[in-house]
Design a protein that fits this description.
The chain has about 425 residues and is mainly alpha-helical. Helix content is about 55%, strand content about 10%. A three-stranded antiparallel beta sheet has the order 1-3-2, covered by helices on one side. It binds adenosine-5'-triphosphate and magnesium ion (MG). The site of adenosine-5'-triphosphate (ATP) has 18 residues, from helix 3.
Length: about 425
């Protein structure tokens, strides 16, 4: 199913095609795609030929995203990416939608703990279904089962330098927080390259993520550009990240005040936490100590960062009717007279309100694990097929297709 947009870029045609004469067909097409993408402000991945003065542009929307099975999913995942995935699913304006459980990537810093990764594959899958992601609309798969991803990673490694890999700010901060010191596993330092393989294997052009993944998307784009240039092809597709508009959702802070809530940092409120646990975690959040009548400080206040990310006016109606909205609460808090305990009580209600239906759906799916297992198994089969198609194209572009249609043999015979 292709979303076809027939829009004539004719007035711009001369600008679009300058500097293309003499280029091979594939280069002309990929350059045209890039220029059209800029002009149309959306990713254009294929251009059909010109017919009676009208260009027919076919835009394929392929979405890919994923999570590491290093623990259950938390509210950072929810606001950073899961909510957007659900919205995209419901809008239905896409051709293919893949969600990957990144177990191979999880092993790069958990290689000595395979049990943890194994156990969490199904936990993550349960979280997906719990937030309403639908296996009839989305293909869910396990990364390690798709061999093509490892093969692509190996080829892409030649396109990236070591200093470039280590310059990645997310990798840098993760290396620091994991105390690897000098013993950084090569697999860990280079995991953004494997992410490029994941994205490009499915020719995804849209990747809904939190902002810690921006450097990975940038790295992927660089690999795509290098690959297509070096091998003179348009096989690989440029992708774009899709970040939440709300800055507090792009990177939700941890309950310990760390800049990022993260499974590996143990500072999370999980989607599956019950109300009592949520309350405990919210009440453990540190705020500046003050007397209740003293003015409160909003800047850097974790409670308000969570409220910015989660609460809507309806929550005030339900749980804090003295105020109509967050702005009013903020003003009152800054004046003094509002204690942190009452804000914490409100925040607990807001988070619990959002998580209650998720928790209930999770419980239902957990009672039928065989069904969940089969969803993942079937999805993985489908994902394998798609990635295998890409690897054939990639190898062809790299001239590694020796035994296809006797091409290599013909070349050998003709060169005699
Ligand atoms: P780990 O600590 O194992 O890396 P994680 O909590 O960082 O786990 P990932 O599986 O690495 O989670 O991330 C999956 C997706 O969720 C990514 O798109 C990431 O950007 C997003 N995400 C993770 N944590 C947050 C957060 N605190 N705020 C917003 N988005 C997040
Ligand atoms: Mg992470």
């Amino acid at each position: 199913r292709a979303a076809a947009t027939a829009r004539s870029p004719w007035p711009y045609a001369s600008a679009l095609i300058t500097g293309m004469s003499g280029l091979p067909d594939a280069r002309r097409k990929s350059r045209l795609c890039r220029r059209l993408s800029r002009w149309m402000r959306m990713p254009v991945t294929r251009v059909w030929s010109c017919w009676k003065g009208h260009w027919k542009v076919v835009k394929m929307k392929r979405i890919l995203t994923g999570d590491r099975p290093t623990g259950r999913l938390h509210i950072g995942h929810y606001v950073g990416s899961l909510k957007r995935r659900y919205k995209l699913q419901e809008e239905g304006n896409y051709d293919e939608f893949y969600i990957m459980i990144a177990d191979s990537q999880a092993l790069t810093d958990n290689f000595d703990n395979p049990e943890k990764v194994r156990k969490n594959v199904i936990e993550v899958m349960l979280d997906y279904l719990a937030v309403g992601l639908n296996p009839n609309k989305i293909t869910f798969f396990v990364q390690s089962e798709v061999n093509a991803l490892t093969e692509l990673t190996y080829y892409y490694m030649n396109l990236v330098t070591l200093p470039r890999v280590l310059r990645n700010p997310t990798v840098k901060s993760e290396i620091n927080s994991k105390n690897f010191n000098e013993s950084i596993p090569v697999g860990f330092a280079t995991y953004p390259i494997s992410q490029a393989a994941d994205i490009t294997a499915f020719k995804a052009n849209i990747v809904p993520v939190g902002d810690d993944q921006e450097p990975m998307i940038e790295q992927t784009r660089e690999i795509v550009k290098s690959f297509n240039r070096i091998y003179d092809t348009d096989t690989l597709v440029l992708c774009e990240s899709l970040l939440p508009n709300n800055i507090y959702q792009r990177r939700l802070v941890g309950t310990d005040g760390n800049a990022k809530m993260s499974k590996s940092l143990n500072n999370c409120i999980y989607l599956s936490d019950d109300k009592e646990t949520i309350k405990e975690k919210v009440f453990s959040i540190k705020t500046t100590s003050r007397r209740i009548d003293e003015p409160g400080i909003i800047d850097g206040n974790i409670l308000f960062m969570y409220l910015e990310a989660f609460c809507e006016d309806i929550h005030f109606k339900k749980y804090y009717s003295e105020f109509n909205n967050l702005d009013e609460l903020k003003i009152a808090y800054q004046k003094g007279g509002i204690g942190d305990a009452s804000v914490k009580r409100f925040l607990t209600e807001v988070i619990n309100d959002e998580l209650t239906p998720i928790r209930e759906r999770r419980r239902e799916y957990a009672e039928d694990l065989e069904k969940v297992y089969n969803i993942l198994k079937e999805g993985t089969k489908k994902a394998k097929k798609t990635a295998d198609k890409t690897i054939v194209e990639v190898k062809k572009a790299m001239k590694l297709n020796y035994f296809e249609d006797s091409e290599y043999l013909n070349e050998l015979l003709n060169s005699k």
